[in-house]
Protein 1
Amino acid sequence: MINKHVKSVTQAVADISDGAVIMIGGFGEAGSPIELIHALIDLGAKNLTIINNNTGNGEVGLAALIGTGQVKKMICSYPRSSHSKVFPELYRAGKIELEIVPQGTLAERIRAGGAGIPAFYTATTVGTPLSEDKEIRNIKGRDYVLEYALKADFALIKCEKADLMGNLTYNKTARNFNPIMCMAATTTIVQAHKIVPTGDIDPEHVITPNIFVNRVVEVSDPLIESKLIAEGISYP
Amino acid sequence: MSDKVKDIKGWTREQMAELCAQDIPDGSYVNLGIGIPELVAKFVPKGREFIYHTENGLLGMGPSPKAGQEDPELINAGKKAVTALSGASYFHHGDSFAMIRGGHIDVCVLGAMQVSETGDLANWSTGEPDAIPAVGGAMDLVAGVKTIFVITQHITKDGAAKLVEKCSYPLTGQKVVTRIYTDLAIVEVTPEGFRLRALAPGVDFDEVAAKTDAPLLPMM
């Protein structure tokens, strides 16, 4: 019987090496795999390229990972936050690279990466500074921009329920980028609120099929980013 | 002009939102930008129903929850706690932006820094060298949603026109805005340029024309 369960977040991220490209799920704190991110901080892998919609909040989770200097480059749509100075300070000091991508283009580049589509055309960014130096093609009378797929070495994912084979369900708007990132990474590492025996999730209710998942680790009582920030906690 | 007359001049933020809501047809799928556009949801005309989409992955978004009932995993695109109404659905970002780019969302209401007479919108960056670029879903929304309404003050706090011949700030999208609701007027973007559609109380054509940095056509 296939069993993708690993015992600890430390074990789950242990083979992430320097220079890795990592997709991290979540939109703000919703769906952010904070325990896996903290395990990556403990591991200390450097020169990372991180793909996430944002750049984290406060001094925990993604913001803390950026703050340690482990991240060489961020690929995101909205690197601003009312609660974090970590990214802006590094960016203004020229210590971190930024590739700014519209949110829908970011999602579609990830989806395309997982679906084996190397590039696609979209109307988003036509006539704006974000399409400068990109290929434009007129299709049936409208201009479109060529955008390339994104893939990653690892994806760090948060889900609600996982079975031992790696079938996943999510909770409300914490789903966001998580399912498409599962598809676009070579190795997908999932922290689940609850791990259940294989067969306990109705096949009609599976959101991410197990083919896209490599490891699942249970974090039954995850940290809540906004609470940590309200309490002034920083990591490590 | 006496202070009293000054007091009733123009529309408030709420009135701008209400006027915009009145122009949205029953049954529309609607995406509201952060800020004044969010107020549109408070003024749905009687007998009409709008279905709200929030691009982080919820269709059928409801109002903010009561204090103490917020769920950090049920938020809108502005990362504020919201609720899900009966008939709502959750989905991932690929599907959410397929709704936007695929032309399935009927109306999007956004704020603006500048709108040009051809309907170009600038609302994401001042282009200053030390500004950290942050675009979110704005470029996807203007490229994919059928009708784009803008709610904004007519001029900036410093008195600069926001309705202009050509945007000086970096664009969010080209030829995308249909109509602008300001504190002074409702202005339509037409193939001939800006055309006045309605005047706020205590405001006349000349004042709107003077505060618009492009030719303004009179009401039809």
Protein 2
Amino acid sequence: MLSFLLIVLASLFFTGIIIRTKSITSGRKGPGIFQPMKDVIRLFKKGAVYSKTTSIIFQVAPSIYFASIIMAICIIPFGQYKGFISFEGDFVFFAYVLGAGKFFSIISALDTGSSFEGMGASREALFSMFAEPAFFILMGSLALLTGHTSFHEIFASLHFGSYISYILGVLATFVFVMIALVENSRMPFDDPNTHLELTMVHEVMILDNSGFDLGMILYGSYLKFAMYGAIIANLFIGIAPLYLAIPIFICTQFLFAITIGLLESFTARFRMNHNAQYILALSSVSLLIFLGVLLMLGQLN
Amino acid sequence: MTIITAIILIILPVLLVLPFVNVQWKGIITMAAVSIVAILSSIIAAQALAGENYEYLFKGSLVTGIIPIRIDALSGWFILIINFTVITGAVYGLQYMKAYSAQKTSLGLHCICFVLLQSSLLSICCIQNSMAFLIAWEIMALSSFILVIFEHHKKETLRAGINFLIQSHICIMFLTLGFLWVAMRMNAYDFKAIQLFSANNSLLTGVALFICFFIGFAIKAGFVPFHTWLPYAHPAAPSHVSGIMSGVIIKIGIYGILRMLLLIRCDYGLIGYLILLISIISGVYGVMLAILQHNLKRLLAYHSIENIGIIGIGIGLGCIGIGKANYILTVLGFAGALLHTLNHSLFKSLLFYGAGNVYQSTHTMDIEKLGGLGKRMPHTSLLFLIAALAICGLPPFNGFVSEFLIYNSLFTGLNGSDKTLLSFIVLGLFGLSLIGGLAMLCFTKAFGSVFLGQPRYNFHYELEEAGLGKLIPMYAIVMLIMAIGLFPKTFISVLSRPLALFTGRIVFSTQASTLPAMEAIPAIGLYALIFLLLTGLIYFARKRITLGKHMDIDATWNCGYIAPTAKMQYTASSFTRAYRKLAEPLFSISKKKKEIKGIFPTTGGQVTHPYDKAEAWLIDYPINFLKKFFNGFTFLQNGNLQFYILYGVVFISLVLVIPFVFEYLTSLINFLNTL
């Protein structure tokens, strides 16, 4: 309950912070941090244009995509407080519900019969598919470390004791940040500000969406960002009491957003055909975490 | 007993009558017979699942000895799976085969083989005499062969059929080897002899015997590297037969493996690792090749290999659980495997029936030529979409439930403190999540390029939606898919008795009082339902809000270009291009490219043909070697009648002379010995 509210709260300003960071680093004045939300609200009020090639799939897909993200957010706990949904193995449900949303966003791109949108769809399908093993191996290692198999129990019993555990925390954060970047199609995997359809990933998929649907897709991705931010925050909250946990949460979200802003300001996008290899290499970082967990449990003697 | 007599009394006259009736009646009689047999056998199966094992001893003959018919919970589960898919296949096939009503004789044979196939599949599940088992197995192989080659005037179909026939017999050879081994030692054909044999011998003998059976059954099930017949046979067969093949015939291999696990006492840990490794390879390899296919049914066939891999992962984990006396791992592993067997039989048959609708409407299976079918065939496209979502393991459908169980068994395995197990678990996690992701890539490609967008090819005939006769069985399957997805607990509680058979194999049972993952099962169903409702709610809200708003229908955005053609759409090949580039080193993909050159360019194009490297190494190389070897003897077959007579004379004289010479030599040696 608490986590849901906090994530929704964070989603309101998250993308604004990214944009603000980017404008500050590039010396521009830039819009205020609530501008992305204002855009979404404006979109919600607008009418829409649909392609004549599209079928019912195109109309339903944004709703399913949005619903999948809401479902996923419900699973995220907040320290010792459970999310709406919590059961053994809930992160499998988490990954697959998000997968269902992605499936529909991909086929809705193919529904337009465009020469560009398939390109974005193909890339999104490929990239997010390669990110999946990294997520599962990481969650597997955390499950091995804590002996639990649900988000809530894993995060509640995760505590940092030895040096190795700090390294593991850093690595896990790295993997989650990278997965968040892949899932939200941000730099260095995808440049959301690119002007050429041929070099886009996510943006090209939603070229034909407009009005309310586009608003839902955009707000969905803000929520997704805040959701991954919440997972990262959870790594550090542990069983901290509320007066500590909420500041940690907000700080993590801020830092996460600023990091993304800085990344987008100072790095170039990867070459598209090397992205997949890079993302698959994330699994090896997850494997490293797994080995670290084994080391901590004294299995590697 | 009465039920079995009734079944036999139905099947025999039907087989005799079928050749002589009218074409219209053939289908109806077949369907009726299949349904009645299915209902009757389901009664026994349901009783077995409820705990009443069925046993009847046929007298048999002098050769076979007593033929025991035993139906326990495991047989019951498989009999129910077989019956459901066969009934939907028969109803669907009734409409599907109307397109071929001119081929009267072929249809007669087809119907007879259909009835035979069902009865042989059912008997394989319950006969426990190795000789009779092999006979039933052979009937199944032959009848499915004839079902596959229905369109035998096509060269490819015949090739695929013969490939299937030969590989089926290699499978039978391994099974025979295993059964003979036991029969020679124990002098009995009853399956109980296998149990006794393995109980009296060392664990290693058990492993060897199990591997012998495993190879045989794995050929039928389609584990890599024994899968090469599968991608040929499935596309060649008529769609309802492909559905049944993929849904139940390959599952009979899984049944065999599970049955042997129950009978043979062996080193379960070792066997478990072996099955787990092969399954992970099968799963990843199958889906990796599936993505590259251009033929819709071939793509689905490769997916069967992938799903057999997923089932195998469950079986492997279950075996490791038995070996380690880990109750939770055993239950979760086998529950996942058994449920996925049912699930796969549902969505895969649905996918094949959907492909059949597409085929009968467009007369092609080439994905690159299809497109935009969603508007012409709304029912088929909806059904195909549901099946595609289910096979990707996405909630709220059934595939998710079984994959969830298998994921959970992987995470349960993490609790052990065994390094080998842990490394296998990580491999399993990597494999299973990769399979999930790749399956999504594959089915977005398949669904997107076949049903969405604009038609890529101008067919010179009207594309029509399939008739009610085909849609009703498909909707029936969807009902079951949804039921499993939303109420998984009911179906898993049915599995408790088959699972008890496996947990009974644990020597020192450390039975846990609660199964944590089992408590999660109703939760999945509930949250899947909530997901559906939430989607509905959001869609409804969107409808209400956008109700009075301005809405336009216009062309797709094409960077300002306003006259796009259907040929400018992103194709299936380009959709998977990025993936193909990555996977290229692993597969042999032959590529032919014709660049556009010159001032007045002519046509250009690119053709890719993915080829299975495992097939090249395991099937093509040995065959080529054998061909070369036997080519050395072609001088014998020179077409000269005189030579052939000479061979005959030489043969006869050798037959006469050799015993004589042998006799002479022995007497000579005897004589020398006496000196």
